[in-house]
Amino acid sequence: MASHGLAYDGCNFFRQRLVLSTLSGKRVRIKNIRSRDDNPGLRDFEASFIRLLDKVTNGSRIEINQTGTVLFYQPGLLQGGFVEHDCNPQRSIGYYLEALLMLAPFMKTSLKATLRGVTNDPADPTVDLLKSTALPLMKKFGIDGDGFDLKVLKRGMAPGGGGEVVFTCPVHRTIRPVQLTDPGKIKRIRGVAYSARVSPQMANRIVESARGILNQFLPDIYIYTDHMKGVNSGRSPGFGLMLVAETLNGCFLSAEMSSTPQGQGDPVLPEDLGRNCAKLLLEEVYRGGCVDSSNQSLALLLMTLGQPDVSKVLLGPLSSYTIEFLRHIRDFFQIMFKIEVQKPSEDERKGGDKVLMTCVGVGYTNINKTLK
Amino acid sequence: CEEGEQGALRWKEGLKQKASEAFLRQQEAAPNLRKLVYSSVVEVGDSDGEEEELGGLFRVIRPQKSKRFQADALDCSRFNPDPCHNWDEEEVLNSIRDCFVTGKWDKSQDAATLLKEDEE
Questions:
Q1: What does the pLDDT read at residue B44?
Q2: What is the C-alpha separation between A82 and A110, in angstroms, rounded?
Q3: From the CA of B75, how many Å to the nearest CA of chain A?
Q4: Which fold has domain A291-360?
């Protein structure tokens, strides 16, 4: 099997495997993809993800067997540049963007990606959430500079889609190691209540009910209402809320909730959605740490790729996705983290146990970047 | 002679209790996350999906839903823990009060102490 690189089973953690394969240059073979399913093989959204990967790389070799149950991927070089991609609306743009965020700093030329599809759905992190949590997190690792931005040009709710976002990221040679061990106290809460193809009043109703809960803790709360009209509102109606708590040390904890897509289950009231989303944010604050739960793997990846120095990051409880990501990092980069549980002291009211992750970076340098 | 024998056997007294105490102590200690993460996962073999032959020609496959390691589950980074706290209760709300600037501060960072130090 040595000639085939690493081998995995099943379709879960699909993006992790392909992203880590691309960064490490190790070939990967995934077999038994939904082999026992009535409808076996890769789904359309996974095919769409592979096409996106093919667009940002140069010289990748992708082989899929006839039934789509076996995938072989030999990564090429990360090319970057202008990329346009119609993301399959089975998954929201967040699904594709999460992987792109991990790859973007290591391109040959700066990436400018225009992604079209579903901007907000209940399953994946929405583009609004990634914009306000993943980008500041990456800045902590020294990924910054002109044109590091994520813009929502058109909103497209599930299932119809029709949204458009532009993600631009400059290239970086190396990643700075970080010490994020103290999140500090939460100073303010910001948020976006968005609505498309419904009454603009929906967003206001969401804001009202969310504030009702959050005001018990803080006075400094501002939730923007974002109502897109006409061609900018996509093909499906819907609304939702994204909340971000910002700490004194510049860490971001987030929560979000979207209305159920049209024709898929019971409709939700904007008041309930606002209240439940506020409670989700409190849950996230209880878990705590310097990185919120949906960005754990991004933080761990950047720690792994950092310069050969010690990086420390305090996280909340590890999600199962993150645990699998740690295993994959070991497979692709031979890095194992030191994992310590930190219990809050008796008289502190700071939520649950935290996890301190420590590692020494592999000293990854961007070999794709052109020297000037 | 008998006394000596008793002394030798004394360590056996309450062995079961000692063992259970030691076990509980270990349980209370921080769960070894590193072991949880990096120890090898129990791979679910092919035999897990029940197979039965129909007329010696077809095989019926019934996939089991309760696989611990779900190889074909949805690839999603969202973290949704099952036991959510009840955020309507005052006690639960109080458990995170100090995460906010409005909560109690450390002695070294408390505004009142800092002001006093400035005055001195």
A1: 46
A2: 8
A3: 5
A4: Translation Initiation Factor IF3 (3.30.110)
